[in-house]
Amino acid sequence: MLGCHKQVSLPYPPLQVFLHRASRFRMFRCQYLVPFRGIRGTELYSRVYPPSDDVSLKANKLCLVSPWYSKGNAIGSDGWKLNRALVHAARALAYLHGQNPPVVHGNVKGSKIFETSSGDFVLSGITETIRLSDAPKSRDGLRWMAPELFNPDEGESKTIYTDVYAFGMTIIELFTKQPPFMDMAYDIDVMISVIDHKRPSRPDGIDRALWNIAEECWRYEPRSRPSMARVTTMLEGLKYSPSPIATSPD
User: Where does the record place the Protein kinase domain (predicted)?
Assistant: First the structure.
């Protein structure tokens, strides 16, 4: 079953830029990424991308098409499923960051990690990074955002390092089943705290090894954060049972 992943509205002139960027995602081959099936136009013409060479897609509203996952996202996963969700999402990010040039996901969080019918997990939301240079910047996911994204001198540019930071926040999110900084009611308070080098409090019951990984991911200096390949290796080394990050019984 396929679902409309996200709908965007664009004027006609930038469509070719949009489609060019989309074509790159279509070439990805990673079992831990939600497959990108194509683009469907909802106005003027309705075609699945890529069109034939002699046809131009002229729709100004586009749906990005991907499979539908009836089991939902990873939020609420416990035990070995939580561990599997983190490992599989980390592998997906390591794959993206390993491209030449590296591909930034830009919106890492628990709601973007979906369980497949086989019990594996896949990272979604990659098509949301297909943005035009003049598109407005979204504040969705502020609680997962790295401190440098709040610094006007940095230009608010998302990088592989901000993905790593967001993954650290996702570890806490999946363990607590709550967004990061749940003790703060307002996003502005979160932003001020993050700029001031503050991070979420350690949740009760979280294993020291998993907590250490989260802390490494959200180091203040971007380049001091581990690569997602390194994070994957560290997560794969967690062999605890019956802790909340226990490995699969099979």
Answer: 1-238
Q: Is residue 60 part of a domain?
A: yes
In contact, 130 and 22? CB cutoff 8 Å: yes
More confident residue, 5 or 77: 77
Domain termination site, one of 23, 49, 65: 65
Question: Please, how many CA atoms are within 13 Å of residue 142, restricted to the half-sphere of its CB?
Answer: 18
Say how far apart CA 47 and CA 139 lie, in whole Å: 31
Higher pLDDT, 154 or 148: 148
| Gyration radius of the chain over CA positions | 19
Instruction: With respect to residue 143, please indicate whether it lies within any of the assigned structural domains.
Output: yes
**Is residue 1 pLDDT above 60, yes or no?**
no
CB 25 within 8 A of CB 47: no
Count the neighbouring beta carbons within 10 Å of the beta carbon of residue 134: 6
Q: Is residue 199 pLDDT above 50, yes or no?
A: yes
CA–CA separation, 52 and 32 (whole Å): 29
Which residues, listed in sequence order, are joined to residue 62 by a DSSP beta bridge? 8, 41
What are the residues whose beta carbons fall under 8 Å from the beta carbon of 192, sequence distance 6 or more?
A: none
Q: What is the CATH number of the domain that holds 141?
A: 1.10.510.10
pLDDT value at residue 156: 65
Q: Is the dihedral of CA 195, 225, 92, 238 positive or negative?
A: negative
Among 65, 80, 104, the domain boundary falls at 65
pLDDT of residue 9: 47
